[in-house]
Design brief:
Number of helices: 14
Shape: globular
Distance between the termini: 75 Å
Structural class: mainly alpha
Radius of gyration: 24 Å
Helix content: over 70%
């Protein structure tokens, strides 16, 4: 004889919760981020950085890219994978200023020397010498540096917490610093595409970005992994090369300046790639 279910059994069956696909979706996204944090960081960086592109194309935004996108992506991924305790080390590194003075000097001198050498070579190759008024714009470099370093979105310094503070250490462990720097360089080159497609920077910057990532990676890893230091380097490059030197030339002279600068960064990277793995 068949056994009929009791009233209690029927009540248990009816009260069994039915999972909702909408409620499961956030859990699935968190699971994906935890399973693939670095890839999730790269994809989220593009989303958080490229949103101004269509607004810029329509004339409603000053730039086609939000340079603080990598920082926000790093905070988001760290928050999902480790919570507040995972975010704190990144913030501390952004404030880590107690490093030997030689590293501060090197972070400032590196972009200045490379850009200055490119400037000298460009003039030797026949570029029109800058006027006194153009050279007088030098006085604006310190202000441009401070703005790039302190104000998110003005310059590229706030990219560094994402690129060097989050992504690079997680790529170094499986791939070594050389391949890790090249992988990160390729990603950051793609990240800059809105600026290139909008004509705001030269296509030579594809080579420059990949090469400078090698240089910055080595400096970061050997100087105690201070994100603040590489933020200073990036702000220096924005202020000196981007705000000052790039405005000294037009036309063919400007294209040659971009090419020479990129080639010097590439030559520097090629030399550094022959070095041994830096001490962490």
């Amino acid at each position: 004889m068949a056994v009929l279910p009791s009233v209690a059994d029927m009540t248990n069956i009816e009260s069994t919760p039915i999972s909702s696909p909408v409620r499961d979706q956030p859990h699935s996204i968190r699971t994906i981020i935890k399973a693939h944090p670095v890839i999730s960081f790269f994809l989220l960086t593009l989303v958080l950085s490229w949103w101004p592109w269509p607004l810029y194309a329509a004339g409603n935004f000053p730039l086609p890219i939000a340079s603080f996108g990598p920082f926000l992506a790093a905070i988001a991924v760290l928050g999902v994978t480790g919570g507040r305790s995972a975010i704190r080390p990144l913030i501390r590194s952004m404030l880590h200023w107690r490093v030997p003075g030689r590293w501060w000097l090197l972070m400032i001198a590196t972009p200045v020397l490379i850009t200055g050498t490119a400037l000298a070579l460009n003039l030797l190759l026949g570029a029109q010498p800058p006027s006194a008024a153009q050279l007088g714009a030098w006085s604006g470099v310190p202000i441009a540096f401070a703005l790039a370093l302190l104000v998110p979105g003005l310059g590229g310094a706030w990219e560094e917490p994402g690129w060097r503070g989050y992504a690079l250490p997680r790529l170094v462990d499986p791939y070594g610093w050389k391949l890790a720097s090249l992988i990160l360089g390729a990603v950051t080159a793609v990240w800059h595409l809105p600026l290139m497609l909008s004509g705001l920077i030269s296509w030579w910057d594809l080579l420059l970005v990949v090469s400078s990532n090698v240089v910055i990676a080595l400096l970061f890893l050997t100087s105690g992994r201070s994100v603040l230091l590489v933020m200073v380097l990036h702000a220096t490059n924005n202020a000196f090369s981007g705000t000052f030197v790039s405005q000294l030339f037009t036309g063919t002279d400007a294209s040659r300046q971009a090419a020479i600068t990129a080639l010097i960064w590439a030559a520097t990277a090629a030399v550094l790639l022959t070095t041994k793995r830096p001490r962490s």
